Amino acid sequence: MTAILVDRETSLAEGSDDQPWRRAMRRLVRRRGAMVGLAVVVFFVLIAVFAPLVAPYAPTATDWGAVRKAPTLAHWFGTDEIGRDVLSRVIFGARASLMAGVVSVLISLSFGVPLGLLSGYVGGFLDGVLMRIVDAMLACPFLILAIALAAFLGPNLTNAMIAIGISAMPAFVRLTRAQTLSTKVEDYVEAAKAVGNPHIRIVLRHILPNILAPIMVQATLAIAAAIIAEASLSFLGLGQQPPAPSWGSMLNTAKNFLDQAPWMAWWPGLAIFVVVLSFNLLGDGLRDALDPRHR
Q1: Is 237 helix (H, G, I), strand (E, B) or coil?
Q2: pTM value?
């Protein structure tokens, strides 16, 4: 009997140490693509945070003696049409792009997740009304809706982030609603109702923690889409306004000098490509790591 009790206590201790999030982290670490994506994302975040210390020049400083100069030791990425250092502008442009991606997704999460929880848990007439509104928003392509909202709100980075956040919100509403509908019929939720827990406690303590995994994956992938959307809005003149640097506005200027100074387009375009690819790799890795079917 003593041996049985000792074995049981040992197994319980091992089980408590092997929490689901620990297993998910181990699965994530084993995915090289996700780790490479995470490393690149962290690198760009550090570059954006410490931009004043890293950038060799001020992003708006002009040098009329070095207009459209090819990459040299003095200007590693070359200069633009008014002699500004392209490397410095790419570094400071990371701030606008990453901030737009993160803030836009936070806006989407702040409104989309509560609406999805409400719609899926309450159901009935309220669910029907909310879903028809979401369907109407989804009928318009994401980028077209973001352009329309940004044009209505006015051309600046703050309004661009709001426009992107609102445009991306329907995807979070639908995802949260679907996860809530499948989770609220689980036995542990029914048991929580049976013992008299209030609805708000059931939603926040029993449903929301169990649907966070797919929402986290969707948020990671949505950041990549938001970065592309911000670059597109800035390219059209609806995002970050000159002379403040933005990868999209840099591409807009570079399109006029592709023959004389192609490096003006190389580096901001490459930065967008690398960051978006890294977030997608990280999102795919999170999806596999948080799915118990993947080992």
Answers
A1: coil
A2: 0.85
